[in-house]
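Consortium newsletter contribution from the modelling node. Members have asked for a concrete example of what our holo predictions look like. Here is one, prepared for the magnesium ion complex that several groups have been discussing at recent meetings.
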Amino acid sequence: MPVMNMIQAINSAHDVMMDRDPNIVVMGEDVGYFGGVFRATEGLQKKYGRSRTFDTPITEGGIVGVAIGMAAYGLRPVAEIQFADYIYPGFDQIVSEAGRMRYRTAGEWFLPMVIRSPYGGGIFGGQTHSQSPEALFAHVAGIKTVIPSNPYDAKGLLIAAIEDNDPVIFFEPKRIYNGPFDGFYERPVTPWAKHPAAEVPEGYYTVPLGKAAIARAGNDVTILAYGTMVHVAIATAEAEGIDAEVIDLRTIVPVDIETIEASVKKTGRCVVFHEATRTGGFGAELSALVQERCFYHLESPVQRVTGFDTPYPHSLEWAYFPGPARLGLALKKALED
Amino acid sequence: MPVMNMIQAINSAHDVMMDRDPNIVVMGEDVGYFGGVFRATEGLQKKYGRSRTFDTPITEGGIVGVAIGMAAYGLRPVAEIQFADYIYPGFDQIVSEAGRMRYRTAGEWFLPMVIRSPYGGGIFGGQTHSQSPEALFAHVAGIKTVIPSNPYDAKGLLIAAIEDNDPVIFFEPKRIYNGPFDGFYERPVTPWAKHPAAEVPEGYYTVPLGKAAIARAGNDVTILAYGTMVHVAIATAEAEGIDAEVIDLRTIVPVDIETIEASVKKTGRCVVFHEATRTGGFGAELSALVQERCFYHLESPVQRVTGFDTPYPHSLEWAYFPGPARLGLALKKALED
Amino acid sequence: MKRQKERPNRPALALHVPEPDARPGDEVDFSHIEIPAAGSVMRPDVAVAPSEIRDLAYTLIRVLDDEGKAVGPWDPRLDPETLRRMLRDMMMVRVYDDRMYRAQRQGKTSFYMKCTGEEAVAVAAAHALDREDMCFPTYRQQGILVARDYPLTEMMCQVYSNAGDKLKGRQLPIMYSDREHGFFTISGNLGTQYPQAVGWGMASAIKGDSRIAAAWIGDGATAEGDFHNAVTFAAVYRAPVILNIVNNQWAISTFSGIAGAELTTFAARGVGYGIPGLRVDGNDPLAVYAATSWAADRARSNLGPTIIELFTYRVEGHSTSDDPSVYRPQNAGAKWPLGDPLERLKAHLLGLGEWDEERHAALLDQLGEEVRAAQKQAEKQGTLGNSPAQDIPSMFDDVFEELPWHLKEQREQAIAEAGAKK
Amino acid sequence: MKRQKERPNRPALALHVPEPDARPGDEVDFSHIEIPAAGSVMRPDVAVAPSEIRDLAYTLIRVLDDEGKAVGPWDPRLDPETLRRMLRDMMMVRVYDDRMYRAQRQGKTSFYMKCTGEEAVAVAAAHALDREDMCFPTYRQQGILVARDYPLTEMMCQVYSNAGDKLKGRQLPIMYSDREHGFFTISGNLGTQYPQAVGWGMASAIKGDSRIAAAWIGDGATAEGDFHNAVTFAAVYRAPVILNIVNNQWAISTFSGIAGAELTTFAARGVGYGIPGLRVDGNDPLAVYAATSWAADRARSNLGPTIIELFTYRVEGHSTSDDPSVYRPQNAGAKWPLGDPLERLKAHLLGLGEWDEERHAALLDQLGEEVRAAQKQAEKQGTLGNSPAQDIPSMFDDVFEELPWHLKEQREQAIAEAGAKK
Ligand SMILES: Cc1ncc(C[n+]2csc(CCOP(=O)(O)OP(=O)(O)O)c2C)c(N)n1
Ligand SMILES: Cc1ncc(C[n+]2csc(CCOP(=O)(O)OP(=O)(O)O)c2C)c(N)n1
Ligand SMILES: [Mg+2]
Ligand SMILES: [Mg+2]
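And here is the predicted structure:
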């Protein structure tokens, strides 16, 4: 089977779907001739023509608004927002329009569209190339939010997102585009090639939205994670010798509550783990859900391990990043309590 | 002491502060000659002139962006967004600029500005005049979010917000502008005049940001609420004969954790109560905080009583609104478990 | 802060805040409004370079003269049948508006918005478009639905959020939606429909379709970023779209000077992007028809978008929640020098000998009848009140195509709660 | 969906997607660019009605002719001292850029952006403004800081996020900020500074101050809604602000046609709002100076905002993360027909007899010395790396004026974690 990194897998998802469905169009800043600043759309314009893959003006509000109109027509647009940090000018169209179109028209209009965006930190991108704003979308009814953690899932989830008949926000942890970063930043980078999830079928397949994966089975504590943090969680568990079960949520709305509940009821302990700022982060939702549903199984408080409630700093990248040290302390506490 | 409803109290806060500080300017859609669609700024243009109170073009992004520039100059702008549902075109300027200005300049620039906005449902406003988007702001570092529940607090908190040297989002539950709505929508409306918190001093005073109030003392269960829900909580406790302690948070960021902790540790039970959609709502944060800090005191799971995860429907207003029935069921459950 | 006094060589700055000519108590005076004679503006070929017709943004395209005669190159030369149909549709809109306004006052619904005086910008445009073209309206273009024979009862059921409301009571009154009639769902958020219309038009071009899009926006809402987003995309990709700006000179209590009308026209925005901007007498149904046709021809010929400013006047309050006498002279609308679009089209038909007062009176009666009958029909299915027509489980439908687990749970909760309420 | 084939009387639509003239492998050809002769454009009084000078948006204001002579009504008639200072500043910017670019390549920081070929749009404008005027730049106007004598070492410390960085290592390299030098903090978010500049200018007018604001935006970023927000507010309130559009014809890999340059100029945007739009040769320092002075005079006289399009060319890559040879012909910048602003000003000074090659070479050496010295000074305070210069507790400062409880707790957590890491 071909070996792909995340970028290649995402590129392949576009390619497979554009080939299958003439209604798919791909657009965004620099995505056309150039193929995107991370090259996720490389080669598509050449293959499918300029009217199916094109550069857009630099206006995220326009990109989303226009994509909504295209989806209302019956196309299936896949729009790239160059960095998740720049999605806010499009926030109104996402929240007020995309999220409510099906509802406000009682199903007369619906929007099969995907907004992809590189996201998260760990690349010394400073406060405007590092953000993880997933919680802002999770709070909005009518929108699904997906965050893959490896090439196989990235392709399968993106295809599922493109096929979904509702708007999907698809955040791609850019730190793991080229390799499964585990948070040990002093160590040399491993490429995807050495990871089993880099084996990616050439053609069509899906990974269903709304289904989590057990990234590492364990018995003593459950770690709920997604994106880059899945790798950090696994590496931390190994490093600390803790028998943690790591759940890779993959989709945060709708979240796979069954898998979460089953795991926490088994382990009796839970750590919620994400890179976004803590207050009002999606970790709060996860913590609340676990507490509501597993209260009588919990042997210690659900803890949140997250980015701090500050903008992402440039020089203090690794002091901000919720790496193995932060998670390790929390895991020990979860087991001690 | 004068008796004021919420609108009058908010109007008075503007007036008192504009009189004291020539750097305060007030602006927004229809706020000038007309005095705002809810009349919160009535009379200010006449008194302070057009260059200190004026109508703006209909562009919330422009209003916030321009207010930021004014605050950077050294003014203290108070901008009205006509309905909280229309704040999203200004979201980028709030999140990317206002929230990070002090941080990114290491204090060289800071933004003493207030964004006021009528918010919440209960007025048959449909999906675009009913929203409660506070959680979206609570997640953003660098922004304070305030939600008053009565005239006295509204004036004192707004003055404190205007005096604060950081950007403050000030959401005004429009359902209680004219009276303390308790959720029993079939009953006749009570005006503020009958409520003690309608006694509002004419002049200057503040209610500090970040401090909650105990709106009703009780021993059996803690209800965490803000805005309209404070009144619903009190009325429900009375109606159900439950000895609930109702905490009026007043500010959600920074939240008054001491008051929350003390109450929950006393009662051992907690219900979090807001009108916004549930998933990723500020209730998730409150639930997580309580669980993290009071785990060993909790006798039953922290429950969330909220709006549903749908857009605000027009005709089903009262089926959507988290009223006494919804809260009552949760309170009983909290006490039974 | 360094201040004026410390820099004596520099003059003091002052803020300019636009203010309308007249406020309550003042006499309204429209005499400064420049009105070119009907027929005086040239009509270029649609293939003209936009740079050659910048002037069209600063004049006023008019067809009907003061006597109701159609004159000049923009006369669309419509047959009497079409003219009568347009008159009928505009009259119907007004009768309907009056009736629904009253229904709101009677407590049958929460909200209503009229378009009095602005009937032509919707009705005449709709007649100039193909039925298959997609319209992206604001809340003041109910005339499109009337012109496209959308059943009045359907409209009323929406206003009442009743059992017949196809939108399941979810939307504020007047936020109609009907795909089949090429009427895109109205949004409560100003301006958002504008880039959506452009996206729809781009999609039509991508697919080699022949349908175009037409969008409407108010003068006030042109200030939104989405206006710029839309025109930028439309200009760049030469999208087949007509971008109408309904300049009725008011945005709730705010006059158009606050939207930028002091310095130039709204049609001039088109000039800024290098696309044609036509400024049109919005109370002249023939001019509206002609300009729309011209823009539609351009769009269909892959020549790209056109901005059309429809210069008109909001005769009544913004909505049932508004009282304009608080911020502008009373009855300002009655003095609007460009008249009433219904009266103007009526006079034209009378002049042609294709209409008479008797038929007019009879038509009015008949429309009243139709509206009354439709209302009866609609009210049989309920009006808005504390006991909604929709059942509680329906509240959870259509958030997503399929109900996820959390909405299923919440639906159960809502049902249990409803039981507890009883 | 109804399709083309079912409507034979309607032509099929097609999407137009702009494409630059040349791609890698093609010969770059700038011969279609219209370049009016230097001195040929009239210079109106600042009190002119904007409607009378729409033409200025479609031409190119130029002062320096091909021989380097200053000609025509826009010649700002600067004294040789000022000219030499402008030359020196532009040269300094280039030397500084080269040095910092290399520092990034050497791994001393994460990122850098040059402004090669665009030095005049910052330096000449800065010289035409008062020092007290507030500039709202993008990342390509480092020239303003140089022109205002901001210490190079300060700039470098920011680029290195080192112990000397007054921004405490919080911002991406080159996102300078200095209030005292009237240099507003650069944002990573494109376009946001534009309405902020307008707000600052409005505030100055509200206070009766005399300082004006000047903002810069790239051709690509003009598409953002904030561009429209800014110009709308500026036009409505006649804000004392200069709105510069730096049209360097590229936005990363995207050519200016995608921002709307196929149909008109960027200066024409001003026409759309009824404010003056000047189109200026951005590689002609005297033209930039003159246009800026004109717009500043207008602003100071309460006549409102001016849009200035600075027509130039991005000679190098977008940033250290970019390789332009992948999307445009190699060395396209070298063929740009409007030349190099440094060379043009040098030629002018040589022509005046106020400069010579020896002095030029000596100055270059001296600037190199200064930059090297500054760099040494800066690097003493560290460069960017895995062991940051800032201490961990500092990460929590300045989120708010005062540290709230949750940040205090998180600070403790971060300190504990740092201990555990050791
Ligand atoms: C984004 C947004 N901001 C504010 C409002 C509130 N609002 C509703 S209508 C209106 C005035 C619109 O005026 P205009 O665009 O001129 O249209 P008109 O009502 O005159 O037809 C305002 C401010 C809104 N609906 N959406
Ligand atoms: C809101 C936003 N969207 C996208 C980006 C990513 N981005 C950074 S620079 C750039 C190109 C800007 O081009 P232009 O405005 O022409 O300025 P130039 O780089 O040519 O000076 C883009 C797309 C951003 N920084 N902010
Ligand atoms: Mg209007
Ligand atoms: Mg550029």
